[in-house]
Amino acid sequence: MENTTAFQWESAAHTDVGLARARNEDAWLAAPGLWVVADGMGGHAHGDFASRSIVEALSTLSLPGDLDQAIADTRAAILGVNQLLMDEARHARVRVIGSTVVALVSRGHQCACLWAGDSRLYLLRDNHLQQLTRDHSHVEQLRARGLITADEAKHHPAHNAITRAVGAAATLDLETLTLDVRDGDMFLLCSDGLYNDVDDTDIATVLASWDCRHAADELVRLALARGGQDNVTVVVIRASEADGSSESYLSPDTTG
Description:
- The chain is of the alpha+beta class.
- Helix content is about 30%, strand content about 25%.
């Protein structure tokens, strides 16, 4: 039997340049049925242009009701930005203009995530926090092979070296996952400026407030209080069963 549950989606976002950087190279989007965080590649020219280009391209989408087609349209838009950034790098005569991306698309009782790089999607369900995305990074490869521990990965000299990004290569392999949504699910999209300074236990505690605005503000506050060595961006999303036959969206934020 088909699940026809409708959900009301609420979201809030917060970004901060941090305490050590002169420029915020993160960008975010919170639009009906589509949420995004992009982190311009640190150390490369025009990282802020790269992350903004992703958000601007996705903000113009009018996604269909079918999840598979919504995924395809989101993927096509990101691949278009990949080519744009490759062209821009050639024009500017720099090696790379790139950005991570993590995007969450919701349709009906399901959602999908597309990502490249080390910006993450977390899910808090039944008070259990789960990292749904797998970092495309050098240290994650080492950790997956059992060569270093998760704690060692956090402090590894190459912890910022990512292996996949928008604009980094002519062919972009966007990883995708889909899952069914449940009442009360709390999702978190974030750049690495959050999880490098705030551990999973504290992330779970903050999300368990079930208040998107409070959680977004508090997560950024914690990241700054614990060092704030990078730009930090979070988008917090809550799904709750809605009355009626269609989805509704409550989001005070649009783009960053």
